[in-house]
UniProtKB/TrEMBL annotation:
GO process annotations (BP): negative regulation of Notch signaling pathway
PROSITE patterns listed in its UniProt record: JMJC
Gene3D superfamilies found in the cross-reference section: Clavaminate synthase-like, Jelly Rolls
GO CC aspect terms: cytoplasm; nucleus
Alphabetical list of PANTHER family matching this protein: HYPOXIA-INDUCIBLE FACTOR 1 ALPHA INHIBITOR-RELATED, HYPOXIA-INDUCIBLE FACTOR 1-ALPHA INHIBITOR
Coiled coil feature spans: none
Top-level taxon of the source organism: Eukaryota
Domain JmjC residue range list: 145-299
Protein name: JmjC domain-containing protein
Length: 333
């Protein structure tokens, strides 16, 4: 197929598809933006695909060519991976790690160079994934589109849900077939799909034990250690018991609510051309009254706080396990 056409036209051919994994998934419900049931689902911290909101509609003109004409000379942040898996790796934490070489590297390049590499890409080359905060690609004409997003609707909703203000927007421009490894984020996300198709596989925070996130000090903190394509069940036996998984396939105009602390794995459809998405992150409102029994995500917050405290006090991650065992085994177990 003509690579140039593939990149520009963002077509969806008949053989387009997603990857196969070995677990059962329920469908995330699809709810129109003005449906009265929408708020109840979001207030229960359940994922939902919101249709028809036109929340980020002005970004639909942000095709690769359009972006090239507007931000072609801007330097943007691009992840490069040897294979289709993009495992987020915080370079600032690398010195504290025991030394695994990251498979995903962050680089900075001009947008026009990124696009050139996308168009000239051939099997065997590193795969690329542009991930840049909107604030750093501010360019007058993009800001005009950005200002025309449905901010009244967004702000009204975030007040209904008692979320804090928007903290950031990430622009995600992926090669088809790219996969973002399973992880959780600490904020609520309204994830707007602009071009192409993406599939989310989501698991609730109750599945923390089955997904074995890396330790908190590790550069891959918040990412699951389990490789969905080839899970190591000896090392991660509880992955066999995983349940509560949900699937959402997003097309242009869809917005997915990803609740804070929900695990998500994200795929850009294979052979579908590049995808463009924008995430809108909001902090939870910490002043909300605590209601018992605590929710699963609140227990994840507690365990992360205890883990952080132990790491700070012990100064050696190897000691965490024995201290926790001495504290609980035969006493709380
Ligand atoms: O779209 C992707 O590849 C990852 C998006 C994601 O993890 C997020 O917006 O939180
Ligand atoms: Fe995420």
């Amino acid at each position: 197929m003509n690579e140039e056409r593939r990149v520009n036209d963002i077509e969806y051919s008949a053989d387009s598809k997603f990857r196969n994994y070995n677990f059962c998934l329920d469908k995330v419900p699809k709810v129109p933006f003005d449906d009265p049931n929408l708020d109840a689902t979001i207030l229960q911290n359940r994922p939902v695909i919101i249709t028809g909101s036109k929340m980020a509609a002005p970004a639909s003109k942000w095709t690769p060519d359009y972006l090239q004409s507007v931000i072609g000379n801007r330097r943007v942040s691009v992840l490069a991976s040897r294979d289709h898996n993009f495992l987020f790796h915080n370079a600032k934490m690398v010195n504290k790690d025991s030394g695994d070489a990251p498979l995903t590297k962050r680089t900075v390049m001009k947008f026009s160079d990124f696009l050139k590499r996308l168009r000239e890409w051939k099997p065997g080359d590193d795969r690329l994934y542009l991930q840049e905060k909107f604030s750093s690609c501010l360019e007058a004409s993009l800001v005009k589109d950005y200002d025309e997003f449905k901010w009244n609707w967004i702000n009204h909703k975030r007040k209904v849900y008692s979320w804090g203000p928007l903290t950031s927007n990430l622009i995600l421009l992926a090669m088809d077939g790219n996969v973002t490894s399973c992880h959780f984020d600490e904020q609520h996300n309204l994830f707007a799909q602009i071009h192409g198709y993406k599939r989310f596989i989501l698991f609730p925070p109750s599945q923390y034990e089955c997904l074995y996130p890396y330790p908190l000090y590790h550069p891959c903190d918040r990412q699951s250690q389990v490789n969905f394509e080839n899970p190591d069940l000896e090392k991660f036996p509880k992955f066999r018991e995983i349940e509560g998984g949900m699937e959402a396939i997003l097309g242009p105009g869809d917005v997915l609510y990803v609740p804070n602390y929900w695990f998500h794995h994200v795929e850009s459809m294979m052979n579908g051309g590049p995808t463009l998405s924008i995430s809108f992150w909001f902090k939870d409102n910490l002043r909300k009254e605590t209601v018992y029994p605590l929710k699963d995500f609140q227990k994840v917050i507690i365990s992360r706080n205890v883990e952080r405290m132990l790491l700070e006090l012990l100064r050696d991650p190897k000691e965490v396990s024995s201290v926790l065992k001495a504290m609980t085994l035969g006493r709380y177990s």
